[in-house]
Amino acid sequence: MPKALPRFIYLLLILIVAVFACNLPSATAVPPTIQPQSNSGNVSAASTQPPSATDTATAPPVLHQLMPSDVSPTGTLNYDVDSSGTGPEHRAPYGDAYDLNLFERPFTQSDMTYVPNLDITTFQISTDGTWYYVFIGLIGNNPNDPINIDYGVELNKNKDGFGDTLVWAQPPYTTTWTTNGVKVYTDPNHDTGGASPEKSDANTSTGAPYPGDGYETVIFDQGKGSDPDLAWVRIDPKDSTIIEFAFKTSLASHSFMWGAWADAGLKDPSKFNYNDRFTFAQAGSPIAGTVQYPIKAIYAVDNTCWAAYGFKPTGYEPHICPSNAPPPVKKPKTPGATPPPACQLSDAICNAKGMVFNPAACTCYVIP
Hints:
The protein has about 375 residues and is mostly beta strands. The chain contains 3 helices and 16 strands.
């Protein structure tokens, strides 16, 4: 018995030490919610889980100070080519002048399907002293076409033919004024027209595009910018064939040239002017019978010549609309009627008469 007692005490001490050891914290334990980053610097799967609703910061709403008025279309009517007569034949009647960056291409790229909501027919502008209001009339009556059409207004403030400002809107559109989907672009490095304001500056030998960046600066993005009220868009609440813009008069001064855009193709202001990004052969043509037909790289787009506002044009301004070009004659659509023929005039024919060719109206005119 005297020898058994030390053995018992020895075993008891071992048991006590083991119990305490099981309850001590481990020095190498890693909390399971913390995942280390890999050597590549990529965030681990655990750390890329979406934050909870309580962790997500809500962006503050845009606070508008001033809204455009509920105006009706006013101002001098300017006309663009109506392609509805020849659209079922997958062609434009005329009005597409690639060397002038003038496009009459309200057609899809794949099969030249005519899209009336891409086809601009009139454009006009007015002001109330605070806002410029632009009214773009369409052949179609649904600016929210499933093809997703962007509309725009291009401004040239110093009349040199190089676009300075682009007011651009994306769908969906509503019948109330909104800044949603509206951006305003500028071109500080002055390259929207490439090396020349009108003709294509793409390399015809190599097919390389002009290496510019077009409208590269956004000064207004859906209410974000130094002026949250700078530019707005809506569908005319009384006429769904009209898309309307309103922008502050400070954006354009008191005299300028301007034109309208409908674009469901490239939709890329950084590629303006489009004819500097592709050769004529690459871009294709909507004019049947030409070697470039049909449309290719530049498709689903319609833009206008540039109208003068606040000054009397000389007629020599790049992109300017002819002041004496008659509006296109609209004839009632008759089933089975023969569509109008393609334009038979050209620069050579008009120049031989000492006149200038206007492809938008298929006329020769005298520069005043």
